Amino acid sequence: MTTTPATPAEAVRHQIQGEILQITVDNPPVNALSTAVRRGLMAAIEAADAEPRVKAVLIVGQGANFIAGADIREFGQTPQPPSLPEVCNRIEACGKPVVAALRGAALGGGLEIAMAAHYRVALADAKLGLPEVQLGLMPGAGGTVRAPRLIGAAAALELMLSGRHVKAQEALSLGLVDRLAEGDDAVAAGLAYAHELLASNAPVRRTRDAQGLADRAAAQAAIDAARADTAKKSKNLFSPHRIVEAVQTALDKPFDEAMTLERQAFMACIDSPQRAGLIHAFFAEREVVKVPEAKAAQPRKLDTVGIVGGGTMGAGIAVSALDAGLPVVMVERDDASIARGRANVEKVYDGLIKKGRMTPEAKTAVMARFSGSTDYAAFADVDLVIEAVFEDIEVKKAVFKELDRVCKPGAVLATNTSYLDIDAIAASTSRPQDVIGLHFFSPANIMKLLEIVVPAKVSADVVSTAFALAKKMKKVPVRAGVCDGFIGNRILAVYKQAADYIMEDGASPYEIDEAVRGFGYPMGPFQVTDLAGGDIGWATRKRRAATRDPKARYVEVADRVCERGWFGQKTGRGFYLYPEGARTGQPDPEVLAIVDAERQKKGIVPRQFTPEEIMRRYMAAMVNEGAKVVEEGIALRPLDVDVTFLYGYGFPRFRGGPMKYADMVGLPKVLDDIRTFAKEDPLFWKPAPLLEKLVAEGRDFSSLNQAR
Ligand code: 3HC
Ligand code: NAI
Q: Where in this chain does the record put each 3-hydroxyacyl-CoA dehydrogenase NAD binding domain (predicted)?
């Protein structure tokens, strides 16, 4: 849909109400500070100063929000005047008291506008914050200069470095707002406050003169603490360090100079690849729910959930459903298993109680919505069933036959399988139109990703129901097609293979993990194997052994490790050693000896790999398979691959996802790498036709995000 951009006069209306000039920002959906809004605000403040009848000014947002910040869509384009700092400074310079009345989002540039006003009132639903850091940015319209003056360096740094939203009551106690107001009418609250200020002859009160930095020693101590913390926690990130230094500048320099330096640092953030990656992630996670079925069909009724299997996944899924407010019926094989299933669910809540994040009464209330049974008849009335039994197609088919027998017509029948053919599972029922894949990630109550796997015969309203379930559960859903491993595990298998080849050719698993961590992942692939349990991958490899291409290179190191019973953390040993249940592993010389023996067996002379080369191979494998997944329609768009990896596989968010990363590196370079590696192993490094096509046409993956 294309819309004509609003003119400044449309985006910002102003009208005189007695002695007060009311300025209304009207730029749906969230009143972002587009060029038109900035121009409109400038014109409105000029009008307020020029008009003698006006004694005070009120700024409000049209609709449910004040202002959600700068217009993110404008970043990366040529900046248009006036800049947001100019607008804020103009508001602050106004010769008449300016009140901002806040409701809904007052975020980023929105809060900076509010801080430039002279007085602030917030309704109960207001959420205030400086979330720029989450977009690879820093406040760039006076936030780093005004917030410390208003609420002190410590509180300002905490807000800017966390990016968290603050509710009205907390904003009042921090000093971000002057008062709270009842109801949901920001105009009425703002007008009442402005009238009161006029009646008491309240002066113009500029935040630039506020005294939050008066205790210099305290401010310096807060900055030092934030600097040390940021060096530790955000070493791969660009903007948090700039935020700390901007507050240092705010302390050391006069107001105007600090504003100028803030702007320079902000522009450096704008130009950073991290900003591009993080803003891509912001939009991608909003686009990912826009799938054809969800647009075409309304979801079915979804008030109750059934779960088959109360093991690792079944219990985690049960917690997700309970936390979404849904009643849950769990069915297990026998009494002992259902008792264990219930205990697995309770264990999660007991953990929360232990950490003080839940009361025992709240647990009792939640568990009242949970029931267990060994009889499938318990599913007679549920709207949706999720199967999470052993990963065995025959077991799953038998379960689906039972579900087909007992569930009411129209119930959604979902499987949590990681790899199995969902079309085949659907075919074991008389109602394949109701069967879908809901692939949760472990631990299911924590991990945000939910792959919604769409088999050939499923009806659109079932897909739509799955997206509705994800929303209720606060998951990030990605639509995937049926294939071995869907989007995530299929691509994982390929780059894991690349890691195995690098290992056999000369790098140790520890060097590979370190390179991957250096790229920004929290863990490397061998650490992940140890955490998940090496036996899971081993079972998959054995299952696939018969269908493996005998010409394809196969690295046996992991099998040798598993044959010794070294399954990772749970056995105290895997690729790493975990003495006395330690969670961080130590390199194991015996694993290195296994690797060496495998090399010798194949006559491989080990060579050196730099971290950079490791990552080039790792990422080329990931991107190439990602391109195949998009081309085959397993993922709708490249951005679906990105979101899968951001939310399910620990891909560093500041890089935007593998496909965005490839765009930023440049697709010709990635393809060049693949062609170079193909000289060693043409079977593995076969360039994806889509990648070749995009390079030939001078396009990138993002062109496909817009196309669908
Ligand atoms: N600019 C442009 N579009 C924005 C936007 C922004 N700042 N914030 C939200 N949108 C768009 C979304 O993309 C979405 O568009 P779509 O309907 O086409 O998908 C629409 O507004 C609604 O957004 P949500 O789906 O996220 O709606 P919610 O109600 O769930 O959340 C929100 C609303 C809390 C405001 C959330 O959108 C949000 O957190 N927005 C970003 C806020 C932010 O980061 N502001 C700082 C910007 S940087 C800045 O201000 C720099 C300054 O310091 C100079
Ligand atoms: P698990 O072994 O922990 O639990 C399986 C449970 O199913 C057991 O409690 C068992 O008693 C029960 N069960 C077996 N047959 C049953 C039947 N006929 N009726 C009722 N209950 C039955 O297994 P886990 O790890 O929870 O995996 C379950 C499914 O989830 C598998 O398909 C797996 O591939 C998938 N999955 C697993 C992930 C993981 O990381 N563990 C991640 C994502 C999906």
A: 304-480
